[in-house]
Design a protein that fits this description.
With 184 residues, this protein is mainly β. It has one domain: Distorted Sandwich (Deoxyuridine 5'-Triphosphate Nucleotidohydrolase, Chain A). Helix content is 11%, strand content 43%. The strands form 3 sheets. Strands 1, 2, 3, 6, 8, 9, 10, 11 and 13 form a 9-stranded antiparallel beta sheet that branches. Strands 4-5-14 form a 3-stranded antiparallel beta sheet, with no helix packed on it. Strand 4 and strand 5 form a beta hairpin.
C-alpha cells in the first residue's frame, strides 16, 4: 500500500470528484501529502442509550442536536469548547471514496496543541459523504473554534487487491442512527 501524492489527489479531485466542497487554499496551495478538511457542523449529544450488538444484530446510536453549522458566506460562528466537553463534528467536504483508495484522517496539530482530541478513523472504499469525528477538550481551558476552521488532514492510501464497498448505516454522512435498526 502506498500514499497518493498531491498531484494525483488533485487530479482525482478534478476528474473523479474525489473530494467535493474543498476550500480554495487546498485546491490551489496544498502542502505535505494530504489535504485539509474544514469544520462543517458541530453536534451535541442530547440523549444517550447507544447499543451496538455483536454479529450484525441491532444497533442504536445517540440522539444529537446540531448546534453550529458552516455558512458559505458571511462571518462564521465561533463555538467555545469548554474543558471536558465532547461533540460530534463533521466536515464541510464530502468524500467520494473509490474502490482503490482508503482515506485516513489525521488531526491537525493546532487542535492537540490547544488541548483538543479529534477521534477519527479510516474510511472504507465506497463510502460517500461528509466525515464525522469526535472532538473532546482534554485541557483545563476553553478553546474557541470557528466554523470552517481546518481541523483535519486526509491522506489517501492506494489499495492493491480486492475491496468491498462500504454499505453501513453512515453512508451519505448520517451522523447517528438514534432509532434501533438492523446492522447491514
Amino acid at each position: 500500500m502506498s500514499v497518493l501524492g498531491l498531484d494525483e489527489v488533485l487530479r482525482r479531485i478534478k476528474k473523479e470528484k474525489l473530494i467535493e466542497n474543498l476550500g480554495q487554499r487546498e485546491l490551489k496551495n496544498p502542502e505535505g501529502v494530504g489535504v485539509d478538511l474544514r469544520l462543517g457542523a458541530i453536534y451535541k449529544i442530547v440523549e444517550g442509550g447507544a447499543f451496538i450488538e455483536a454479529d450484525l444484530g441491532k444497533r442504536k446510536g445517540v440522539k444529537t442536536e446540531k448546534i453550529a453549522e458552516y455558512k458559505k458566506r458571511g462571518r462564521q460562528l465561533e463555538i467555545v469548547v469548554k474543558p471536558g466537553e465532547y461533540y460530534l463534528v463533521s466536515t464541510v467536504e464530502k468524500i467520494n471514496t473509490p474502490k482503490d483508495l482508503m482515506p485516513v484522517v489525521f488531526p491537525r496539530t493546532s487542535l492537540f496543541r490547544a488541548g483538543l482530541l479529534l477521534l477519527n478513523s479510516k474510511t472504507d472504499p465506497g463510502y460517500k459523504g461528509i466525515l464525522t469525528m469526535g472532538l473532546k477538550n482534554l485541557s483545563e481551558f476553553e478553546v474557541k473554534l470557528q466554523m470552517g476552521a481546518r481541523i483535519a488532514n486526509v491522506v489517501f492510501y492506494k489499495i492493491e487487491g480486492k475491496t468491498v464497498d462500504y454499505r453501513g448505516q453512515h453512508q451519505g454522512g448520517r451522523i447517528s442512527p438514534h432509532e434501533e435498526e438492523q446492522q447491514v
